[in-house]
Amino acid sequence: MHLTSIMMATSLIIIFFLLAFPVLTSFSPHPLPSNWALTQVKTAVKWAFFISILPLCLFLNEDAETIITSWTWMNTHTFDVNISLKFDIYSIIFTPVALYVTWSILEFASWYMHADPNMNRFFKYLLIFLIAMIILVTANNMFQLFIGWEGVGIMSFLLIGWWYGRADANTAALQAVIYNRVGDIGLIFAMAWIATSLNSWEMQQMFTLSKDFDLTYPLIGLIVAATGKSAQFGLHPWLPSAMEGPTPVSALLHSSTMVVAGIFLLIRMSPMLENNQTALTICLCLGALTTLFTATCALTQNDIKKIVAFSTSSQLGLMMVTIGLNQPQLAFLHICTHAFFKAMLFLCSGSIIHSLNDEQDIRKMGGMHHLTPFTSSCLTIGSLALTGTPFLAGFFSKDAIIEALNTSYLNAWALFLTLLATSFTAIYSLRVIFFVSMGHPRFNPLSPINENNPTVINPIKRLAWGSIIAGLLITSNITPLKTPVMSMPLLLKTAALAVTIIGLLTALELASLTNKQYKPTPKLSPHHFSNMLGFFPMVIHRLTPKLNLALGQTIASQTIDQTWLEKIGPKATTTLNLPMITTTNNIQQGMIKTYLSLFFFTFGLALLLLLY
Amino acid sequence: MLKILLPTIMLVPTIWAVPAKYLWSTTLSYSLIISLISLTWLKSSAESGWSFLSPYMATDPLSTPLLALTCWLLPLMILASQNHTAPEPISRQRTYITLLTSLQIFLIMAFSATEVIMFYIMFEATLIPTLVIITRWGNQTERLNAGTYFLFYTLAGSLPLLVALLLLQNNTGTLSLLTLQYTPSMQLSSFADKLWWAGCLLAFLVKMPLYGAHLWLPKAHVEAPIAGSMVLAAVLLKLGGYGMMRMMIMLEPLTKELSYPFIIFALWGVIMTGSICLRQTDLKSLIAYSSVSHMGLVAAGILIQTSWGFTGALILMIAHGLTSSALFCLANTNYERTHSRTMILARGLQMVLPLMTAWWFIASLANLALPPLPNLMGELMIITSLFHWSWWTIALTGGGTLITAGYSLYMFLMTQRGPLPAHIISLDPTHSREHLLMALHLLPLILLISKPELIWGWTA
């Protein structure tokens, strides 16, 4: 085995061991020390991050990618399932990013959750989640990927429902699992198709073998899976609902790692995807629709976490668009940069929410720039990075995506929707800054505002550095797999920036309009559409369960089980047999006449037969 | 074979001879030793053939996992029954354990029989102890009705099997499983042959139970005491699957078309019973219906007759046996504390019994087939083989997985999450016995992840 592969495998195994060690030791019957979360878990993740730098350096230096198959797990006559790990550009870069972000979030969580009696358990959940995520990213095998895929889903169930006394949290947790399960049907479909047609779940074999097949249906399955996990349009409502979970959970799962798993799956499968125009078009249109729809929803939300959640959903849509453009590497780049600034935005909102005594409504904030200067500065940096301000992290990925979109000849409709969503990004980002940092305070006078704690400042600071330089670092170090278009008209080149600036100006104008009332009532129906999330949850969350539960109750249970099956089975047996039994019973009541007449009747009949 | 069977039979005198004080601990450790010895069957040297042969009994890769499961379940049943039989006089306790033991004797003979007719007799013999368990030891008057349903559904289904077996004996001259698969395949064309085909399978389809013939199951489960529910869900239903797998080989040329309606029924049942689960208020009834739903998948996997289907069916049978038995035990821990099966009366238990919640969580996840638990391996293999047969099945199986996730988590959220109701004032703390019971259910399930070929059957 080559030395480089050994180094990569070893470092991954060390990472797994480092992360698993606190989980395993926590099963000891002795209660954990109260600082376990910080001393054990955070340290483990920190060291895992430093170790994950090693394969990254190897990759950057030697461009080394490798696949390691270690153990045949299951083996039927023709079909193997192995434990096999993949180290390619995607897993090698994503692992350090995920670990870096998690490290910061864990440190922040130790402050945010300090009053929770079960904080150690919370950290344990986060750690198990992280392990599942790394399994997903490094899997070279559909089964292994499925383990990670479901693992992150279930951990998200546990973490969203962390405050399990609240009905809302439980509902949101269940909702997340059910939407994800709909996506899983797609994944299972794709896996079944791959198993029956290609006869292997190993990725490199799948890619080689699939050349001669029409892959439209399995790819649609994979897209459905990605739709569920990455909250694309149709299966998106779980993501904003998931904000019921604690803010560190939103920062880790629902912005930077778990929700990008769907996009990551498609990036992984891009060798199968790239030759299938139908699937690519579906991705493009689905992504465009998602990014615009969720950006629209973000415009009028008042809950700070909901806004950030919708902006996540919108960015996921943008990533999906990029997949549709057949630029998986750009989508991956956006995953990486997005992880930094979105996690930071969540941490900033967490810090503000905590400072304002658990107030999430942006209308009751304001003037935070004077009271929490560091947090609000970082909030601004994050928002600027999100809108794609030149030379912040978001710029390098977002601008490249929009350029690729502009120079492609694919679908003008999708292009238009995406550009519109880009300008919306500027609008809702400004709205958050305007309501939270600027203006006058609108919160209660006695708020426990205090951001001067190293466990708040340091994580946000680290992520802020990431939001500033990560894009530059990554783009200047990795080799693009596809040749980017280098020259284009000025209008196309600056389109992303232009629509963003237009959005910003519009938003500023609208903000100033709020002080000068021109109309007695503003136009309400567009507002309702956006504020009520396009009426989507109202319809789908009532109609579908109602139908299904009615099916369960009235048809399956009452009509079939309790009525028809009873009627034609046991009850029918009773009603058929009862008259005969009654008659026979009634005859034999010790009356000599009946007996005699029966005797003579039988005797006569026998005689008749005998004579005949 | 006799190494297990004789100790099991000798367990009966032990039960009656042992001093009352040591009754439960002795029987528990005795049966546990038996089950540990039975694990040696799993390490059979013959890769695909029969091993541990005696004149009438043998094991092969298909029956071994089920035999091991049977032996494994007796100590668990004893462990689970200890609390609720405690108020009974000691002789009744002894009778009860004797009943459970007799069930294990019959089950071992059923699974290891090499003669189909012996399998049939043992298959019928298991009805007697089960009936007694349900009707004598159940809690409410509905238990009598449940017993009637249980007996008559199963008997009515299995009498045609006797006739069919006698016919088979007439045609082939043997009913030995060792040689049956080598007999030349029969020319089956007439209508009577089709009836014969149905007769061969009907008993097992009722036992599984197939959707449509499942009415006895929820009733029996709900009314039976905990040990009855456990053994019903874990082993007795699997008799149906096992019998089908054995018979399928002989029915070869007919099965292809004739099985279509049954496959559809089974899959449709997955959806329908799953939907019923979503509306259940009764904890045990929910788990019972979930069993019907899972066994529908097993039935479909067997009827599809591919090696993946068989393997998946066997894996799912074992995994579901452990999972549903674990769920019944958990339901029973609630029942023993609140004396009600109604879910809404015992909510928010995470607050008071946090470790139990962990078991509930693992068991629910196993029920909804979380990878890499064997439940998922089984379901995935069955879904794949069904998918290979027809693409449309993914709508039913996929919908089934969605609904399964829905009701499993509904059950979990309903019992464990949310605020604690005000009427729950003093709950017993959990016993180590209960935790041991759960651990003995779920640890094998988790350990099977690393070596699934133990429960793979012939494909291994």
TrEMBL record, chain A:
Molecular function (GO) terms for this protein are: NADH dehydrogenase (ubiquinone) activity; NADH dehydrogenase activity
Q: How does it sit in the membrane?
A: Multi-pass membrane protein
Instruction: Provide the reaction this enzyme catalyses.
Output: a ubiquinone + NADH + 5 H(+)(in) = a ubiquinol + NAD(+) + 4 H(+)(out)
User: What is any one of the record's Gene Ontology cellular component terms?
Assistant: mitochondrial inner membrane
Record domain NADH-Ubiquinone oxidoreductase (complex I) chain 5 N-terminal: where: 73-123
- What is the main EC category here? translocase
Organism (species): Oreochromis niloticus (Nile tilapia)
Name the record gives this protein: NADH-ubiquinone oxidoreductase chain 5
Key words of the record: Electron transport, Membrane, Mitochondrion, Mitochondrion inner membrane, NAD, Respiratory chain, Translocase, Transmembrane, Transmembrane helix, Transport, Ubiquinone
Automatic annotation (TrEMBL), chain B:
Per its record, the protein catalyses: a ubiquinone + NADH + 5 H(+)(in) = a ubiquinol + NAD(+) + 4 H(+)(out)
Report keywords, A-Z. Answer: Electron transport, Membrane, Mitochondrion, NAD, Respiratory chain, Translocase, Transmembrane, Transmembrane helix, Transport, Ubiquinone
**GO CC aspect terms:** mitochondrial membrane
Q: Name one GO molecular function term.
A: NADH dehydrogenase activity
Q: What InterPro entries does the annotation carry?
A: NADH4_N, NADH_Q_OxRdtase_chainM/4, NADH_UbQ_OxRdtase, ND/Mrp_TM
TM stretches of this protein: 21-42, 62-81, 93-111, 117-137, 149-168, 195-217, 224-245, 260-279, 286-304, 310-331, 352-370, 390-415
Q: How does it sit in the membrane?
A: Multi-pass membrane protein
Documented EC number(s): 7.1.1.2
Q: The NADH:ubiquinone oxidoreductase chain 4 N-terminal domain covers which part of the protein?
A: 1-110
Say which enzyme class the record assigns.
translocase
User: Which residues are in the NADH:quinone oxidoreductase/Mrp antiporter transmembrane domain?
Assistant: 113-403
Report the record's Gene Ontology biological process terms: ATP synthesis coupled electron transport; electron transport coupled proton transport
UniProt function note:
Core subunit of the mitochondrial membrane respiratory chain NADH dehydrogenase (Complex I) which catalyzes electron transfer from NADH through the respiratory chain, using ubiquinone as an electron acceptor. Essential for the catalytic activity and assembly of complex I.
The UniProt similarity line reads: Belongs to the complex I subunit 4 family.
Cite the PANTHER family for this sequence: NADH-UBIQUINONE OXIDOREDUCTASE CHAIN 4
Q: What is this protein called?
A: NADH-ubiquinone oxidoreductase chain 4
